[in-house]
Design a protein that fits this description.
The chain has 233 residues and is α/β, with parallel strands linked by helices. 47% of the residues lie in helices and 15% in strands. It has one domain: Rossmann fold, CATH 3.40.50. The two termini are 32 Å apart. The protein binds cytidine-5'-monophosphate.
């Protein structure tokens, strides 16, 4: 294993993973892999090309040849995602795209095709990897593995608030049902199911505000990886 450190942050959506990972990447100036975005882009590309969600062969080929780029506009800003040179940053964030991603994510050959792409993010000075199987499959030798959980009810409420803030109308009951369905699919699939690695530190964020989660994780990071720059908060 190389000496370049990796921090993996796994867990279902709505647990605060994205916020934590952006904070860590900004603080440490490390690379950031948003693996969910890869599955989302693949789902979007499949839809654009009219590929069926159960056409494993076509999806594998699409995953092998996916023309995706992650562009950081400036330090601390959102990572822009491009598919075939076109910005799809916002388009891949919809609930529909998240659900479509989780429908194609169980296909073993698709996951295999995306593996090398994800591992290529492991570069100096370090990597923050956000996903479902970062600590279990993609980076099993990671320096620090965090697994975030939160009750389905709390996660639905957070998502609802996020959408409202963006001016997107949403229905809490519908969101809860979608989240429950996606959780079920992600955690019961036979390949790389959503679960904590045996050596992951599990944090339940249901009753914690995001600043507390950030503070707790920063402390864990400093303890595990000595000599890091001071935290921003
Ligand atoms: O994290 P995000 O909500 O963007 O992920 C979308 C979907 O992609 C997840 O519900 C999951 O099915 C899939 N995914 C995965 N493995 C990862 C990241 C995401 O299977 N490492």
């Amino acid at each position: 294993m190389s000496n370049i450190p990796i921090i993996t942050v796994d867990g279902p959506s709505g647990t605060g993973k994205g916020t934590i990972c952006s904070y860590l990447a900004e603080w440490l100036h490390w690379h950031f892999l948003d693996s969910g975005a890869l599955y989302r882009v693949l789902a979007l590309a499949a839809e654009k090309q009219g590929i069926d969600k159960d056409d494993d062969v076509a999806l594998e080929q699409l995953a092998e040849n996916l023309n995706v780029e992650f562009k950081v506009a400036e330090a601390g800003s959102l990572v822009n995602v491009l598919l075939d040179g076109e910005y799809v940053t916002e388009e891949i964030r919809t609930e529909t795209c998240g659900n479509a991603a989780s429908i194609i994510a169980p296909i073993a050959t698709v996951r295999k095709a995306l593996l090398a792409r994800q591992r290529a993010f492991h570069q100096t000075p370090g990597l923050i990897a956000d996903g479902r199987d970062m600590g279990t499959v993609v980076f099993p030798d990671a320096t620090l593995k965090i697994y975030l959980t939160a009750s389905a009810e709390e996660r639905a409420k957070r998502r609802y608030k996020q959408l409202k803030e963006k001016g997107i109308s949403a229905n809490l009951r519908g969101l809860s049902a979608d989240i429950a369905e996606r959780d079920e699919r992600d955690s019961t699939r036979s390949i790389s199911p959503l679960k904590p690695a045996e050596d992951a530190i599990v944090i339940d964020t249901s009753k914690l505000d995001i600043n507390t989660v950030v503070a707790n994780i920063s402390e864990l990071v400093c303890k595990r990886i000595p000599g890091l720059p001071k935290t921003g908060g």
